[in-house]
Specification:
about 1000 residues, Serine Threonine Protein Phosphatase 5, Tetratricopeptide repeat, about 5% strand, 14 strands, about 60% helix, 6-stranded mixed β-sheet, 5 domains, single chain, alpha/beta, 5-stranded mixed β-sheet
Length: about 1000
């Protein structure tokens, strides 16, 4: 089960509150103390929004009340109203007891004055309920909330913002009672009412944002990531326009949007938004410490999911320090979650005792702050502690403790969450694992089956939004791996095989399957329709990213409105295209939906010398399954995730050093050998002994591992000695390795009798253009200088000379986005790029992976174009029209994913597959100019007749390795840069 995070953002505070403020004014405080000026100041403060800067508001209110006291003839009613506003400022600062006293005093005094009930008075009644709710006194709170709802209905009607605020307050009490599914429709109604009412009156502009943030958080908890992203975007859009870019709620909405994007698996999009929110909060003269704590926690989580756990740990610890030093009455529930995240990181580092201590601290904190034992943070902490207890080789009493925790968690989630909620399914699967540990694996598999089936069905539903698929892929992987462990213990190979496929599933698989299923079978009209659908979907992703970039940035409102309109139009176009494809292609949904292969079908596709290798990784270590035509073998390797990652980093560091020295430095063969023993335990190595070709399906960081450079026997000699390196038992000597897109992708159905013959080569861009002056702001100018690629043109021309058919080379000034998009790509059997690749999210202005081309400023070549930024992004690539058997990316970082450390093939590779590529040859790292053309050329020309692409790549690598005349050729940095995706 992957790390999860619910309310650790500003939404955590907002879920505990439902303050009912009124007017939205931001006048500076009056400086005089005369009666008329004080009267005007009191009138202004009676209807003042304190949510944007409650500290500043409190200082202004206290100054006005002090002046009113000196004057001595202030209107008592006006003073009471200002004191009520002071209570709202106290509430926003988390000083709930003080706020409650102020609100009760207002209610009592206004009643004693014989004043008729007004909407403002009803607001304060609602606020009393909010303060009581935040203090955990839910029964009292509900009485006040219901009273506020009844008063607002009679005074202002059901379409008023007052009614929306009271309804929202009742929803929060449902939530705090552990009933978020009952709370969601109330909050949805409150958002709709508040948005309409505020649009008409121009008042209470903070309510749509506040309610929208809460709605997004509740939808995350219910397992609906797609709706959560939509709600958070709407809240952020509204706040940006109506509250201002630095308003406290605008920053809270940015944090909520980041949280929703994280939950959807879109870490590359989330990280820049969360960094921006943190920067803006820290820039405030008097930042609220809790807001900083929430922002630090949110950014930590995004970095954590993107694979930077060490950097994330520092942010988590800063957040935890803030929350822990707050007074007990102001500590947020999400503080417990922060300690739980720290516990997970130290657990992954093998520090189990420290992790156990932190998990118990998190649970104690959650229980102390919660008003209900079913509070989400309590359940989260119980689940985390139970998971750790199960993973330990612990005595039976630890299993008993874990079982008690999980019985409570599963019962609570059955009442409060959808059956696809990740924590609910994880808890059910962990509970089943206890049965397996107690000696009943068959019963355990049966217990886990309903939850796993629901999660599986959701992931395989072609109609599900892509954000949901990404979220399930990333965060449900550990649960599927645990299910595979249970199935293996029960001797059910099919269930284990299916679970590992689900654990390694990415939306690259569905893109690959979709095009392969439709192409050449239903005619050009259907083919054109599916390509239009993929192109339009890619355009929608780019528009959504554009809207995220616009939020919180300076710009005119017309541009924001135009983006929103284009999103609406594009979504409508997608629906129409989906219907058209359904009419043209019988069984369209079945054809385009990914379905894991059965074990029998997978074995039948394998040749005698072929094997399939599947990996799964969870907190307990690795699960490995090797499949040949005759055998199915499984094994496990216990290793903490951080230690495995450390070994991979050591290998990568050795590669990096080899790149800097042109292969003359040493290579860490000991780490390569250690990795081999972990990834190929004895039962697996023996099962693969007669398999010359191995196709690997591996998740996450394992997908970026250069398997060819693993060492299969204890190395001897000097790591820097070329002779010793050539004598090393590299894995490439034993197996030809390729990366699986899916367990079904070895099918012969994808082979064609008459593939296209042409060649298009693109590369050697004019990188100096990135730094050239001009009127257009090019993202390339914000990047560190990129090195020139002097051998790129020669590499492309050598490749073109060996390929039949029409050939086109775009280099230098011709290597522009416009030229690539206009090139005859559909008729090319081989398309090659020799340029730099950029990782999405690694730079603040680069939110998705991209290939670097030559930028063209506006008006260049005498035209009136808007210019191009020189980045061919993943979304632009996906809109290309390809039919190539080979796409070769001989570039720097072309394995880049959608975030700083996303799974290797989730970015550029996925985009090319969506555009129509059938197999890809990608570089793990920058390829030497004198080697790149040699490896790619020998691979492409060698894959003919009975020689597979994987065997052709292997032979090319071994040829470079054996070449004593090639300086540094024995180092893996030189001969092992490429990975084959598909075959």
């Amino acid at each position: 089960m992957r790390k999860r995070f619910w309310i650790g953002l500003t939404a955590g505070l907002l879920l505990q509150s439902a303050v009912g403020a009124s007017p939205r004014r931001a006048d500076e405080p009056a400086t005089g103390v005369s009666g008329p000026s004080i009267a005007g100041e009191l009138r202004a403060l009676a209807d003042y929004d304190t949510s944007g800067d409650p500290n500043k508001a409190l200082r202004r209110i206290d100054a006005a009340l002090a002046s009113a006291g000196k004057v001595g003839n202030a209107d008592p009613k006006a003073v009471l109203l200002v004191r009520a506003t002071r209570g709202e400022a106290l509430f926003w600062l988390g000083r709930y007891e003080e706020a409650l006293a102020v609100f009760r005093d207002f209610d009592t005094r206004m009643t004693a004055l014989g004043q008729p009930m007004t909407p403002r008075h009803a607001d304060i009644v609602n606020n009393i309920g909010s303060a009581l709710s935040s203090l955990g006194r839910l029964d009292e709170a509900r009485l006040y909330k219901q009273r506020a709802l009844d008063l607002s209905e009679s005074l202002t009607g059901k379409n008023s913002v007052e009614y929306a605020a009271a309804l929202y307050g009742l929803a929060l009490i449902d939530y705090r009672r552990g009933l978020p599914l009952e709370a969601i429709p109330k909050v949805e109604q409150a958002v709709a009412i508040a948005t309409m009412a505020s649009s008409q009156s121009g008042r209470n502009a903070e309510y749509p944002t506040l309610f929208g943030i809460t709605l997004s958080t509740l939808q995350i908890q219910a397992g609906d990531a797609t709706s959560a992203v939509s709600a958070a975007r709407a809240a952020a859009d509204w706040a940006d326009v109506h509250l201002g870019k630095t308003h406290r709620l605008t920053l809270a909405a940015l944090n909520a949007l980041g949280a929703a994007l994280n939950d959807a698996g879109l870490y590359g999009q989330a990280t820049p938004i969360l960094r921006r929110a943190l920067d803006m909060r820290m820039a405030k003269a008097d930042p609220d410490p809790r807001d900083l704590g929430y922002s630090l926690n949110a950014l930590a989580y995004s970095l954590d999911l993107a694979g930077f756990s060490e950097e994330a740990l520092a942010f988590y610890e800063r957040s935890a320090a803030i929350f822990e030093t707050l007074p007990a009455s102001q500590q947020p529930m999400s503080g417990a979650n922060v300690f739980g995240q720290i516990a997970r990181i130290v657990r992954d580092d093998g520090q189990t005792e420290k992790a156990l201590e932190l998990n118990r601290k998190a649970l104690a904190m959650a229980r102390r702050l919660a008003s209900s034992s079913d509070d989400p943070e309590v359940l989260r902490a119980e689940l985390s502690l139970a998971k750790l207890l199960i993973s330990l080789e612990a005595p039976l009493e630890h299993l008993d403790a874990a079982q008690a925790l999980l019985d409570h968690v599963t019962a609570a989630y059955s009442r409060r969450a959808l059956d696809t909620n990740l924590d609910r399914v994880a808890a059910e699967t962990l509970r089943a694992a206890i049965d397996a540990r107690r000696g009943d694996p068959a019963g355990a598999l049966a217990r886990a089956r309903p939850g796993i089936a629901a999660l599986r069905a959701r992931l395989l539903d072609r109609t599900s939004a892509s954000t949901g698929a990404v979220r399930l892929r990333d965060q449900a992987a550990g649960t599927f791996v645990l299910n595979a462990r249970i199935a293996m213990a029960a001797g059910d190979g099919q269930a284990a095989f299916d679970a590992l496929q689900m654990a390694g599933m990415g939306d690259l698989q569905t893109a690959f399957t979709s095009l392969a299923a439709i192409h050449d079978r239903y005619g050009p009209e259907a083919d054109a329709a599916i390509r239009a659908y993929l192109s339009t979907a890619a355009g929608l992703r780019e528009l959504l990213k554009q809207r995220d970039r616009e939020i919180g940035q300076d710009g005119d409102d017309r541009g924001d409105f135009d983006t929103a309109r284009r999103i609406t139009d594009t979504e409508r176009d997608l629906q129409a295209l989906d219907g058209r494809i359904g009419a043209l292609v019988p069984g369209y949904a079945a054809l385009t939906g990914f379905e894991p292969a059965t074990l029998a079908a997978a074995r039948s596709r394998l040749a005698k010398d072929q094997a399939m290798l599947l990996y799964g990784q969870d907190a307990q270590g690795l699960v490995v399954m090797a499949i040949t035509r005759d055998t199915v073998t499984s094994a496990t390797t216990p290793i903490p995730a951080r230690r495995l990652a450390t070994l991979q980093r050591k290998l990568r560091a050795s590669i990096e050093e080899g790149l800097l020295t042109d292969g003359t430095s040493g290579f860490d063969r000991q780490s390569a050998y250690r990795l081999y023993t972990l990834l190929f335990p004895d039962p697996i190595a023996e099962a693969l002994r007669h398999s010359h070709q191995v196709a690997i399906l591996a998740p996450g960081m394992l997908a970026s591992l250069p398997f060819d450079a693993l060492v299969t026997a204890l190395p001897s000699g000097d790591d820097a000695d070329p002779l010793a390196l050539r004598r090393t038992a590299w894995l490439v000597r034993r197996h030809a390795v390729s990366t699986l897109v899916s367990a079904a992708s070895l099918s012969k159905a994808g082979k064609r009798t008459s593939p296209p013959q042409g060649f298009v080569g693109v590369g050697a861009p004019l990188l100096a253009e990135a730094a050239a002056p001009g009127d257009v702001e090019l993202p390339l100018r914000t990047l560190p200088p990129l090195p020139q690629l002097p051998g790129a043109e020669a590499e492309l021309r050598a490749m073109a000379d060996s390929i039949a058919g029409d050939r086109r080379i775009l280099v230098g000034a011709q290597a522009t986005e416009a030229a690539v998009k206009a090139a005859p790509l559909a008729g090319a059997g081989v398309i090659a790029f020799a340029t730099h690749g950029l990782v999405g999210g690694a730079y603040r202005n680069i939110v998705e992976p991209a290939l670097v081309l030559t930028p063209t400023p506006p008006g260049s070549d005498g035209d009136d174009s808007d210019g191009e930024d020189g980045l061919l992004t993943a979304s632009e690539i996906a809109r290309l029209n390809l039919d190539a058997d080979w796409v070769i990316l001989s570039a720097c970082n072309t394995d880049a994913g959608e975030s700083e450390n996303a799974p290797t093939y989730s970015g550029l590779a996925r985009a090319f597959v969506s555009a129509g590529a059938r197999s890809l040859l990608l570089s793990h790292w920058p390829v030497r100019d004198d080697v790149a053309g040699r490896l790619t050329l020998r691979t492409v020309t060698g894959a003919r007749g009975s020689t597979s692409r994987a065997q052709a790549l292997r032979r090319a690598q071994l040829e470079v390795l054996a070449d004593t005349a090639l300086p540094g050729g024995a180092h893996p940095a030189t001969w092992a840069p490429f990975v084959l995706v598909g075959d």
